[in-house]
């Protein structure tokens, strides 16, 4: 590489394109990152445009061997995506800030966990909290219980209704069988419903017909202690393909602030199958099923009882698992007239220190896509979801009621109208949802696409989305911790804070304004730029009412009840840039930059005790950079590396950091390969996220290495 990072940065000015981001980062004042924010934006744009337009300066000779990178840049920008419109369309024609990680991208990374894959996407914040927890969000509001991101696997929503977030350690797929990962930054609620507020992620697996034969993969190392993946695919008759698979992972614990081994080791086992049937007519059917089970270690901190209000630490591994079955039937009368019906049942459970819970979710959805005229097409659908939960656990986190069953109905419609011979497209649509907690939510959007040429598209959007209340926010009571003495809030010594759910807590709302441009200035260079401004209202805040403080004796302490309300509002704004350059068929580079700024406020007559932990004071990085190189040294040898910079999180006292991941693989025989991967190579350990209000104690991410052997036959 043209530069290296040690205690200080040294820049080789033979390669000025790499100098610019380092100079920007060096000027990112750790105390006041906003001082250089817009300078970073401007220079970042100059950097990426310069990189895009002048990227072919160094290598012009014809390639001497065929590349094993599947998709050249020119084909990549025309990759079909479905997330933005619920129908296949080229990426270049999408009217959303969408990024695609192809199977080729996934294989080159060497990553073994989904959260690490998402680090490559601009506008997505990924912070590892401990060995098995991540704070993942798009465009801010990060937390290990982030609730403004809709996550799907093969169109099946995997969020938990307990807190409207995702247990990332429970979500996994076989990466070799993954077709692509699509990520939208920005609202997508008009098609995908509530909680698709700041983004949507859909992990799409390959049809069973494309995963025939046997895969055996085994590996392990320092942190990834051991993993084993097995898959077999075959056919029954001529029109029924299947695959069955199993996956096991065992991860070592990370270290705490004193560099001692923590209590967060974990393991996960999953087995599953997929069937794909194609009828002689225009019918298709897919069945996907999986069972998973694991043990997740954590160090908890909290209050053991009201008789002993001091904070205690408990090493208590949680048992977690679940199962699901998903059925999909498609009938296509033509390429432009298609009916689709989906049904699924999911069951999940988690037994931990604070609560034992189990949740069963039943979904039924129908949609129809049709061409009304040559210029007008329509997609509409209806859906029904029923959630049944059972939560046991008294002190310190009781749920009242402990069991609840409730329904949610949805419908949506979206019209696409093409003007001026397909050069202009107008999209208008809305989702209509009725949920148990906040009633009706209407979530419209208006989008426009302008295609002035074959290799350029410009888009803009105005949309509204809602984040509906969760079970925890309405029905749970949290005995949080002994509060620190605080003269500003008049909090006396020996005060126990108890957070009580609010039955009147309502949905959060956002109105988003977005615009972007995608272009292919050369056949081996692509540029994708998006900008946004989000206006939030009815956001969650935590209020302390001093008049409600209670005095208890034996032992003597103050009980300070706080509650959740909808009294916060604010805005966020930012820029996201992604550029790809393929100087040789065997070599591809990607460079991304993200800038984010959030400002929230609470009315003067409302006390928000959570404000010091919220985004306006910096639980997100103002600036992020990512540079990745994928290089096929020979047809059978690959060398890949990714360098990332993440700005500091001021209110969490998490420092900015550089990190480098690398992957080397060698196919020494047809179907047989070995690989060596390293992650977090620049530091022995570093912290990526922190929270004072979480009952789980965070740990430090570590340098790690692992080897892998893969056999296809």
Provide an overview of this structure.
A hairpin with a 2-residue loop joins strand 29 and strand 30 (525-544). This protein has a 22-stranded antiparallel beta barrel. Strands 5-10-11-8-9 form a five-stranded mixed beta sheet. Strands 1-2 form a two-stranded antiparallel sheet. Helix content is 7%, strand content 56%. The two termini are 36 Å apart. Residues 1-41 and 43-68 have low confidence and may be disordered. It has 713 residues and is mostly beta strands. It contains seven helices and 40 strands.
Topology:
Layout: E1 3-5, E2 9-11, H1 16-26, H2 37-53, H3 73-76, E3 80-81, E4 89-90, E5 97-102, H4 103-109, H5 114-118, E6 124-130, E7 133-138, E8 149-153, E9 156-157, E10 178-185, H6 189-192, E11 199-205, E12 213-221, E13 224-236, E14 240-251, E15 266-278, E16 283-296, E17 299-305, E18 308-315, E19 318-334, E20 337-351, E21 356-371, E22 376-392, E23 403-419, E24 424-435, E25 439-453, E26 456-467, H7 471-475, E27 477-483, E28 495-500, E29 508-522, E30 525-544, E31 550-552, E32 557-584, E33 587-601, E34 623-634, E35 637-646, E36 657-669, E37 672-679, E38 685-686, E39 701-702, E40 704-712
Parallel strand pairs: 8-11, 28-32
Antiparallel strand pairs: 1-2, 3-4, 5-10, 6-7, 8-9, 10-11, 12-13, 12-40, 13-14, 14-15, 15-16, 16-19, 17-18, 19-20, 20-21, 21-22, 22-23, 23-24, 24-25, 25-26, 26-29, 27-28, 29-30, 30-32, 31-32, 32-33, 33-34, 34-35, 35-36, 36-37, 37-40, 38-39
Helix pairs in contact: 1-2
């Amino acid at each position: 590489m043209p530069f290296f990072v040690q205690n200080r940065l040294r820049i080789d000015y033979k390669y000025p394109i790499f100098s610019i981001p380092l100079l920007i980062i060096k000027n990112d004042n750790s105390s006041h990152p906003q001082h250089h924010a817009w300078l970073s934006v401007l220079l970042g744009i100059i950097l990426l445009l310069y990189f895009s337009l002048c990227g072919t300066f160094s290598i012009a000779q014809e390639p001497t061997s065929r590349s094993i990178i599947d998709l050249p840049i020119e084909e990549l920008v025309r990759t079909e995506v479905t997330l933005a419109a619920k129908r296949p369309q080229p990426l270049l024609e999408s009217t959303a800030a969408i990024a695609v990680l192809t199977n080729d991208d996934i294989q080159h990374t060497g990553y073994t966990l989904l959260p690490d894959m998402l680090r490559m996407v601009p506008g997505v914040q990924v912070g590892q909290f401990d060995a098995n927890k991540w704070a993942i969000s798009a465009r801010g509001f990060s937390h290990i219980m982030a609730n403004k991101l809709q996550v799907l696997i093969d169109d099946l929503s995997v969020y938990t209704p307990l807190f409207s977030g995702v247990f990332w350690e429970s979500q996994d797929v076989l990466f070799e069988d993954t077709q692509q990962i699509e990520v939208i930054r920005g609202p997508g609620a008009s098609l995908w419903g509530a909680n698709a507020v700041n983004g949507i992620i859909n992990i799409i697996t390959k049809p069973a017909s494309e995963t025939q034969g046997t895969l055996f993969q085994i590996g392990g190392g320092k942190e990834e202690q051991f993993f084993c993946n097995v898959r077999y695919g075959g056919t029954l008759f001529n029109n029924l393909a299947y695959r069955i698979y199993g996956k096991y992972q065992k991860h070592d614990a990370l270290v705490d602030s004193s560099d001692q081994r923590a209590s967060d080791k974990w393991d996960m086992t999953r087995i599953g199958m997929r069937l794909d049937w194609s009828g002689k007519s225009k019918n298709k059917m897919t069945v996907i099923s999986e069972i998973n089970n694991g043990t997740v270690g954590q160090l908890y901190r909290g209050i053991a009882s009201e008789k002993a209000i001091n904070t205690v630490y408990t090493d208590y591994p949680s048992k977690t698992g679940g199962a699901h079955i998903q059925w999909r039937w498609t009938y296509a009368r033509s390429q432009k007239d298609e009916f689709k019906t989906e049904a699924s049942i999911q069951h999940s459970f988690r037994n931990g220190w604070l609560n034992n819970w189990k949740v069963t979710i039943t979904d039924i959805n129908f949609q129809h896509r049709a061409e009304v005229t040559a210029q007008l097409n329509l997609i509409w659908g209806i859906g029904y979801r029923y959630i049944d939960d059972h939560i046991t656990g008294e002190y310190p986190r009781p749920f009242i009621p402990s069991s609840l069953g409730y329904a949610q109905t949805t419908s949506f419609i979206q019209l696409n109208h093409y003007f001026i011979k397909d050069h202009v497209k107008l999209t208008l649509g809305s989702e209509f949802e009725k949920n148990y907690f906040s009633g009706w939510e209407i979530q419209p959007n208006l989008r426009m696409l302008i295609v002035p040429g074959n290799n350029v598209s410009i888009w803009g959007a105005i949309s509204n989305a809602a984040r509906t209340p969760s079970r925890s926010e309405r029905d749970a009571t949290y005995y949080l911790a002994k509060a620190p003495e605080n003269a500003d809030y008049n909090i006396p010594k020996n005060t126990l804070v108890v957070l009580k759910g609010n039955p009147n807590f309502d949905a959060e709302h956002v109105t988003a304004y977005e615009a972007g441009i995608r272009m292919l200035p050369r056949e081996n260079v692509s540029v994708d730029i998006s900008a946004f401004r989000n206006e939030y209202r009815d956001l969650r805040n935590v209020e302390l009412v001093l008049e409600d403080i209670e005095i208890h004796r034996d032992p003597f302490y103050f009980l300070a009840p706080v509650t959740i309300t909808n009294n916060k509002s604010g805005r966020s704004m930012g820029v996201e840039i992604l550029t790809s350059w393929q100087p040789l068929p065997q070599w591809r580079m990607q460079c991304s930059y993200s800038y984010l700024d959030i400002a929230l406020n609470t009315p003067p007559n409302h006390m928000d005790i959570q404000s010091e932990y919220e985004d306006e004071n910096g639980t997100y990085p103002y600036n992020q950079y990512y540079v990745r190189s994928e290089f096929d040294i020979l047809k059978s040898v690959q060398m890949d590396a990714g360098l990332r910079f993440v700005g500091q999180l001021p209110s969490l006292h998490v420092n900015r950091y550089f990190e480098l991941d690398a992957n080397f693989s060698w196919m020494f025989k047809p179907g047989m390969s070995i690989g060596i991967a390293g992650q977090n190579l620049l530091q022995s350990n570093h912290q990526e996220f922190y929270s004072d209000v979480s009952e789980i104690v965070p740990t430090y991410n570590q340098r790690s290495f692992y080897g892998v052997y893969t056999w296809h036959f």
